């Protein structure tokens, strides 16, 4: 019996979402009194044993001599095979781009119940009930998984990362991989250095900025805060900023520790993408902006004056 | 080419979220229903554009739901599509819904199945992958662009920290997100035409759900905003640093 944690990697590097998922899986295994096993799919450029710091004792690396497959069906098949070998009763994924692609396929192929977007450890006192975010962060639901094998995916930025665990042992395994049906012809990195969904701090701006030429001060503030940049829907629709920066109902949903919204009125569709942020700061010249109702801190003022002052104040705090 | 677009009915984005029956059911009182925006703006509109470019394309729509989903599927037909199917089941979980659609897809022999990346109510992000898994079809998730060339789909999908372009032979399942197409508004001709387009009701096949919702819960309300004067930015930074401890 074991809890198997599928580790997200991109170009051989373990993603931050995996640190959370490994911590979650380690704590869940302790709760169930079974072993936690991390699963790497394909080659990595890092030393896998160090992943033990999140509380994992054993890492299985499938096909370490091959790059991670591009086809989610191929990856799902590898996950199922390792889960069978390790007699895993729970498989934990990240609710990330990669987890969203793989987990449903594993669920369908093995007829194991899947709950996505999980925010807490399950209640296992009577069955296996997990809490997940629903209605775009406006509510939670508690869902019981009724199959012997349980699949869950953990929402990014919702679980505390463990530290200080001993190095994990590494076991490599070669498995026959199915033929890929997806042929990648081009790959390109986005200009954002920080992945929006993984960022601890996000600085976001809206129509109040008046035009794309005014984003310099937003990027400057984001830089001193170590934040990712984001924007509201009208800004992305007007092509002032790229679509992958659009947070909200129809864009990306995020849950950073700190969300700074500048010149965004806070329409309900925007709030749906950011309301799981721990602390929200709103800067808007309109005191009636609905965003203030959802904010923890606010400044009613002109962004063009407040933002440079805020950048300077953060610089002073950080001593840069 | 034969395309199926999967449509879900969801509460309007501005609907009040409340629960009934001792927090075990979504309270539908006074709720306006819409086509799930990801299904409509991205999956359906892109499929309509593909049909406009190649008029011999067959475009079908499908939903899983009770009779209360009929107005939604008619609204989708007003945007475009040749005919629609409603599988008569109030789906209890994503697997049960995916299973129904998978049977319809096998029977219909579709080359391309499009879904939205998630619904805005249950946010499962799982339907496309489950359909692909059940029917052993290729799956591309979170697509931002889709072109058709010869006998394959050229799809741009979002990956961690970037995007990639891939080529996939038919048949395949794609989940669509922002970038695929621009939202459209149905015109009067479309609305009139939708009234006479075939909408067939199909009885579901037996398949139990794999999961059960036991309760809903609303998040704790916010304490209220703490306002800082615009010339007191240092004070805001102090609060974020010392009180909220997020800076």
Structure commentary:
The complex is a heterodimer of chains A (320) and B (247). Chain A is α/β, with parallel strands linked by helices. In chain A, 27% of the residues lie in helices and 28% in strands. In chain B, helix 2 (70-79) packs across helix 5 and helix 3 (94-108) packs across helix 4 (127-135). With 247 residues, chain B is α/β, with parallel strands linked by helices. The termini of chain B are far apart. The relative contact order of chain B is 0.18. The interface between A and B is large, with 97 and 81 residues. Strand 17 of chain A pairs parallel with strand 15 of chain B.
Mean pLDDT of chain B: 96
Number of helices of chain A: 8
How is the largest sheet of chain A built, in terms of strand order?
Answer: 7-10-6-1-4-5-11
What value does the Rg of chain B take, in angstroms? Answer: 21 Å
Which pair has the most extensive contact? Answer: A-B, 97 and 81 residues
What do we call the CATH topology of the largest domain in chain A? Answer: Rossmann fold
- What is the strand arrangement across the widest sheet of chain B? 11-10-9-12-8-1-6-7-13
In the CATH scheme, the class of the largest domain in chain A would be Alpha Beta
The structural class of chain A is alpha/beta
> What is the CATH superfamily label of the largest domain in chain A?
HUPs
Question: Strand-and-helix sequence of chain B, N→C?
Answer: EEEEEHEHEHEHEEEEHEEEH
Please give the largest β-sheet of chain B.
9 strands, mixed
* Spans of at least 5 consecutive residues with low confidence of chain B: none
Contiguous low-pLDDT stretches of chain A (5 residues minimum) are none
**Total strand count of chain B, please?**
15
Q: Biggest sheet of chain A: strands, sense, closure?
A: 7 strands, parallel
Annotation, overall tally of beta strands of chain A: 17
């Amino acid at each position: 019996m074991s809890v198997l944690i599928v580790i997200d990697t991109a170009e051989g590097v373990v993603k931050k979402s995996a640190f959370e998922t490994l911590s979650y899986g380690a704590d869940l295994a302790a709760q169930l009194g079974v072993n936690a096993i991390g699963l790497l799919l394909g080659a990595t450029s890092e030393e896998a044993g160090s992943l033990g710091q999140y509380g994992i004792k054993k890492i299985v690396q499938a096909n370490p001599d091959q790059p991670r497959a591009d086809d989610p069906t191929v990856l799902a098949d590898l996950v199922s095979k390792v889960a069978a070998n390790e007699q895993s009763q729970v498989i934990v994924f990240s609710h990330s781009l990669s987890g969203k692609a793989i987990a449903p396929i594993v669920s369908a192929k093995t007829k194991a119940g899947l709950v996505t977007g999980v925010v807490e450890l399950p209640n296992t006192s009577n069955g296996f009930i997990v809490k997940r975010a629903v209605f775009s962060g406006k509510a939670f639901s508690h869902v019981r998984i009724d199959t012997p094998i349980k699949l869950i995916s953990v929402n990014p930025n919702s679980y505390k990362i463990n530290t200080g665990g001993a190095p994990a042992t590494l076991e490599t395994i070669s498995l026959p991989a199915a033929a890929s049906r997806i042929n990648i012809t081009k790959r390109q990195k986005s200009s954002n250095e920080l992945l929006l969904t993984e960022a601890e701090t996000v600085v976001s701006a809206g129509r109040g900025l008046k035009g794309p030429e005014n984003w310099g001060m937003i990027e400057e503030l984001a830089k001193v805060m170590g934040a990712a940049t984001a924007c509201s829907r009208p800004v992305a629709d007007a092509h002032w900023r790229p679509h992958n920066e659009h947070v909200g109902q129809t864009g990306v949903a995020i849950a950073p520790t700190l969300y700074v919204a500048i010149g965004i009125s806070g329409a309900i569709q925007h709030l749906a993408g950011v309301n799981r942020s721990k602390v929200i700061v709103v800067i808007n010249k309109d005191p009636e902006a609905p965003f203030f109702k959802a904010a923890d801190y606010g400044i009613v003022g002109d962004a063009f004056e407040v933002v440079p002052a805020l950048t300077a104040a953060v610089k002073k705090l950080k001593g840069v | 080419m034969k395309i199926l677009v999967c449509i879900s009915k969801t509460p309007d984005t501005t609907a009040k979220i409340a629960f009934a029956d001792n927090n075990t059911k979504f309270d539908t009182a006074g709720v306006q229903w819409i086509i799930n925006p990801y299904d409509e703006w991205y999956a359906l509109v892109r499929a309509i554009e593909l049909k406009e470019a190649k008029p011999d394309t067959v475009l079908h729509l499908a939903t899983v739901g009770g009779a209360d989903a009929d107005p939604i599927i008619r609204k989708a037909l007003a945007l475009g599509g040749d005919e629609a199917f409603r599988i008569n089941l109030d789906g209890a979980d994503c697997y049960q819904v995916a299973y129904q659609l998978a049977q319809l897809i096998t029977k219909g022999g579709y080359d391309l199945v499009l879904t939205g990346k998630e619904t805005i109510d249950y946010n499962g992000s799982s339907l496309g992958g489950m359909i692909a898994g059940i029917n052993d079809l290729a799956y591309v998730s979170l697509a931002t662009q889709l072109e058709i060339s010869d006998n394959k789909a050229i799809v741009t999908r979002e990956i961690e920290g970037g995007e990639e372009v891939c080529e996939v032979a038919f048949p395949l399942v794609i989940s669509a997100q922002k970038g695929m197409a621009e939202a459209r508004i149905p015109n009067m001709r479309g609305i009139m035409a939708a009234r006479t387009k075939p909408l067939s009701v199909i009885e579901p096949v037996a398949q139990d759900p794999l999961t059960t919702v036991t309760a809903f819960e609303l998040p704790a309300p916010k304490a209220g905003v703490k306002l800082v004067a615009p010339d007191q930015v240092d004070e805001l930074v102090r609060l974020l640093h010392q009180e909220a401890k997020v800076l």
